[in-house]
Amino acid sequence: MGHDHEGQRVSRRRLFAGISSLGLGSLLAACSSAEGTATVTTSTGASVTPAATTAKDLTSLFDGAGTCKLTSTTTQGPYYFDADKIRSDIREDKQGVRLRVAVKVQDSETCKPLGNAVVEIWHCDAAGLYSGAEAASTGGGGGNPPGGGNPPSGAPTGAPPSGGPGNGGGDMADLTPTDDKRYLRGAQVTNADGIVEFTTIWPGWYRGRTIHIHAMVHFSNQRVLTTQMMFDEKLNSAVMAKSPYSEHTGRDTFNGNDNIYDDSMLMKITQEDDGYLGAIVFSADSDKDGA
Q1: Is 128 left (phi over 0), alpha (psi -120 to 50) or beta?
Q2: CA Rg, the chain, in Å?
Q3: Helix/strand/coil (H, E, C) string of 250-278?
């Protein structure tokens, strides 16, 4: 899948048929109807209906994923905001090992695929920086390590509270961005099989956290899941040995000593072409009744 033009709001592959520019707020409103058939008006004045698609059939990736156990909820971290980027390729100009992310969302009570759910992901680049918060994620905005974890010994103080599995995803306010960059952030809507896919790069690292990707699921115009995705450490080590990751040395936190890591957050990774494909199933509490 090719790169989108930097700054373009919608994938050239037209995830939503006929949409030339559509913000996340309009998308959430459109997908909140029971049948997912609500229409929205684009910036060009056209009325369209969001139609979820994926680049190719990914259903076989999730064969055997029969669990309906509720996916662990974690902190959203200090650097979440609505990036207003409805797209599948979130790389922009960021260099790194190509990673295709496939997520299947299912209802935690029925085990049925959850169609017309909006999935957002965001993560840091190879140097550990978050778009929209570059100064803060380098320490220039107060020194807080991004991602919601406790700082390691000797790290700058004033970090946000830790958030392990089950401690809730609404413990931090959404960020007001401090720069106009939006790399490695994007949203998609699940198809009838509950699946979305993104093209990104393998995340980098920063002090106090293992390597991870943040994810948030919206359904019926509500945030129903905030969680994280993680990787096997053998693969992390292999990727971190490559450029540009190898230029960022001194990694201090791994899966074994991360205060948010949980085995259920590990993605199923396979190698493909010039990178990797990662798959994971999210079981979301779509009606927010705690089951």
Answers
A1: left
A2: 18
A3: CCCCCHHHCCCCCHHHECEEEEECCEEEE
Residues 33, 37, 42, 47: what is their CA dihedral angle, to the nearest 10 degrees? -130
Question: Confidence band (pLDDT; 50, 70, 90) for 184?
Answer: very high
Give the per-residue pLDDT at 169. 44
**Residues 51, 91: Cα–Cα separation, whole Å:** 23
| All residues at 6 or more sequence positions from 283 whose CB lies less than 8 Å from its CB, including other chains | 67, 68, 69, 70, 71, 106, 107, 108, 111
> What is the number of alpha carbons within 13 Å of residue 271 lying toward its C-beta?
4
pLDDT digits (tens, 9 = 90+) for 227-279: 999 999 999 999 999 999 999 999 999 999 999 999 999 999 999 988 999 99
Residues in CB range of 258: below 8 A, 6 or more apart = 149, 209, 210
The answer to pTM > 0.70 is yes
The 10 Å Cβ neighbour count of residue 38 is: 15
CA dihedral 142→145→146→148, nearest 10 degrees, is -110
The DSSP bridge pattern shows strands 222-230 and 268-272 to be: unpaired
Helix, strand, coil percent values for the chain (each to nearest 5): 10, 25, 65
